[in-house]
Structure formats: structure tokens, C-alpha cells
């Protein structure tokens, strides 16, 4: 294994938990999900999950490294497609994605020796783990279904890790997400923070405009008080001369 590959980690994400394989130590560190954290692939308590993951990483003294996340078959929804007609193919894909019980999915179509394989997963689940790992200093290189790795990955050991790292570049191309998540990353809390910033910006802009308007009214009021009523006297004088 190359030295740069030793500075990487592999996460096997399953319905009931995850296994973190440290390539430098060649050790597996398990983390089990309680039903209070994740149930049926839905995040129940994001804040508690983040706290538990932080404790998990610190307890095992896992150093931040580039990561590959493998999704087990229990985490993914998969559909083999052999249809050659383009219209029918699109209908099959759309109908399948609509049937998945998540608000938003991360999905990809993989070319197979015979036909194609459509794979989808809960995007919210992926996004939250991306966010948590990234917040702890890790970088996400790829998120791929284990079914396209080439071996039946149910657990991570040294042999499986060697095989996966040998296909590293290929797996990056087959990722369900963009490899450059440091640019595209849509962090879960970032949306809320951005919304709060926009509200404060609008309030600040409103206060500035209101202050400017009050200042103009003040100037106008001051100007009218200082100007003597000379025009009326002149008008009366001229009027008297005319008559």
C-alpha cells in the first residue's frame, strides 16, 4: 500500500451503525446507532448524533484524514435496468426514485456488464455524515454503494481495505456525491446560518434607510423654520403699487 493511501480512512455505513477502518493502524473501530439517533435510515436527533460521533472519534484518537464512505446494501435502494428504449428507461428511473420514502435522494446509474444498476440513498443521511466528518477535519473523497466495489463488503478488514484502495480512482469517479465536497459542501447548519445572516442584513439595511429618511425630514423641518416669511411682504408691497 502506498504511503499516501495509509493516510486515509474507510467508513462502512450500515443501517445499525458504522465501521471505521484506519488504514495506518489497520484497525476497525465500530460505532453503533441507537434508535434515538437513527431509525429506518432517518436522522432522529442530529445534535446528539454529532455529539456521539465527536466522542467516538476522540475516544479512539482517530486522526482527520481523507475518507471513502461505503454504503451497504441495507442503506441503498437498488434497481437493475435492462431496458434499451430511452423513454421507457427514463420512466423506470423516475418511477423508482418517486417510490423511495425520502424527501430527497442521492442517486446514480452505473453501467453493468448487462444493462445498468440504479442506486439511490437518503441524501439527508449522507449530508449529515459529510457535515459531521468535515467539521472534525476530515475530507470526503467518495461515497459509493458497496455493491459496485467488486467484492461483497459486509465488514472491513485489511484485505478488503487493500482491494478498495486499489480501486480508489475508479471509486472516486463512481461517487454518489461530488468528490470536491470542500467546494460544493452544503452543510446542514449552513442553510440556517445563511438565513439568519440574511435577516440581520435586511434589518440593518432597513434601519439605515429609516435613519436616512428621518435625517432628510429633520433637514426639511429645520430649513422651513429658519426661512423668514419675506415673500409675503414683498407680494403685498407690489400689490399695493399696482393698485
From TrEMBL:
Q: State the UniProt keywords alphabetically.
A: Membrane, Transmembrane, Transmembrane helix
Q: Where are the transmembrane segments?
A: 199-218
List, as start-end ranges, the regions of compositional bias called Polar residues. Answer: 232-243
Region ranges (Disordered): 223-243
This chain belongs to which protein, by name?
A: Uncharacterized protein
